[in-house]
Specification:
- It is a single chain.
- By secondary structure, this protein is of the alpha+beta class.
- Helices cover 65% and strands 14% of the residues.
- A 3-stranded antiparallel sheet has the order 1-2-3, covered by helices on one side.
- Strand 1 and strand 2 form a beta hairpin.
- Helix 1 packs antiparallel against helix 2.
- The protein is rod-shaped, with a radius of gyration of 40 Å.
């Protein structure tokens, strides 16, 4: 085959050249035909595309690394919450359990003031346990492990409950 293809640079342009020698049986024996096309914009676009692809690959690597770090951080947070939950719930359950026993007068009778104070300890312990459970629920919701169930709330009753729980701390201050 007497055809040749190549690219050449000329005056800041990239030219594609196809050079074909005409056969002896052609109307112009010994002649040649040259096809020339300016492919500068195409080649520049290919170079830009290659550069953008390299940047995209680099960014993809960075995002994969960041994602791996986030997975590690999430796992660490989950372990931390599990440990904190255990470390807080265990003594709180003891406080709540023992105060329940005392309030039922199992070891002996309490006077009115002792019953009032112990009731506040019991309620505060239960409230703190609820807060811990709420924090853990929020962590599970963030992780997508829990679905929310919307429900109506009696805001007045909720406000009274909060007021009752906060009253001892406010009176102390």
């Amino acid at each position: 085959d007497s055809a040749r293809e190549f690219e050449a640079a000329a005056d800041g342009h990239i030219l594609w050249v196809r050079f074909v020698r005409l056969s002896r049986g052609s109307p112009f024996p010994g002649g040649a035909v040259a096809l020339i096309a300016d492919v500068t914009s195409r080649r520049n676009a290919e170079f830009e595309l290659a550069a953008l692809n390299a940047q995209l690959q680099q960014r993809l690597g960075e995002l994969q690394y960041a994602n791996e770090r986030l997975v590690d951080v999430q796992a660490s947070k989950d372990r931390f919450l599990a440990n904190v939950s255990h470390e807080l719930r265990t003594p709180l359950n003891s406080i709540i359990g023992f105060s329940d026993i005392l309030l039922r007068s199992i070891p002996g009778e309490l006077n009115a003031e002792q019953r009032t104070q112990l009731g506040m300890v019991n309620r505060a312990g239960k409230h703190l346990l609820e807060l811990i459970n709420d924090i853990l629920d929020l962590a599970r919701i963030e992780a997508g492990a829990v679905k929310l169930n919307m429900a109506r709330v009696d805001v007045s009753a909720l406000a009274h409950e909060i007021s009752d729980q906060m009253r001892p701390a406010c009176e102390d201050k």
